[in-house]
Amino acid sequence: MTSNYDKIKATANYLKDRKGIRQADILLILGSGQSSRFQHFNLKKKVKYSEIPNFPVSTVKGHKGELILGELEGKNILIMNGRFHLYEGYSAREIAIPIQTAFLLGVKSLIITNAAGGINRYYKTGDIVMITDHINLTGENPLIGPNMDEIGERFPQMNDLYTNEYQEKMMKIALKLKIELK
């Protein structure tokens, strides 16, 4: 039986050896409505999810299902154009494979976008909201099962998951671009 780490390593090796995606600094995961957001990137490589071994394939309308390597301000950005969801039938462990693969490609920072509904009457369609914390109420966890020491700790600290450094950067950028951030 192939371990999850073996799958992740094989996926990373495929991207390095067969597709020329050898290193990235940041992983940017685009959600619904974000598939055309790379006009400022210097695009280098593009691979369909369906071509990548062990990668889930997005079934959601509007999620293109492609992995893109781009460059922005001297940083290699790995862009997932479309993401995966539990409601598509994937396990949390399967959904984590692309993120863990990116880690093996050198990624140390993760930015996730999405479109979401909410019950806060002060939020309107199109508002940009910065997440500063979350509670997992799904009962799912990608860390269940044998630990992969090569990827990291069994149960990492969650108290600085959304770092103050990134929150401050986001607030500065929003202010500079005159974007109201909620």
Automatic annotation (TrEMBL):
GO terms for molecular function: purine-nucleoside phosphorylase activity. Pathway: Purine metabolism; purine nucleoside salvage. CDD domains: PNP-EcPNPII_like. It is an enzyme of class 2 (transferase). GO terms for cellular component: cytoplasm. Its EC number is 2.4.2.1. GO terms for biological process: nucleoside metabolic process. It comes from the Bacteria. It holds the Pfam family PNP_UDP_1. Keywords: Glycosyltransferase, Transferase. PANTHER family: METHYLTHIOADENOSINE/PURINE NUCLEOSIDE PHOSPHORYLASE (PTHR11904), PURINE NUCLEOSIDE PHOSPHORYLASE-RELATED (PTHR11904:SF9). Belongs to the PNP/MTAP phosphorylase family. This is purine-nucleoside phosphorylase. It comes from candidate division TA06 bacterium.
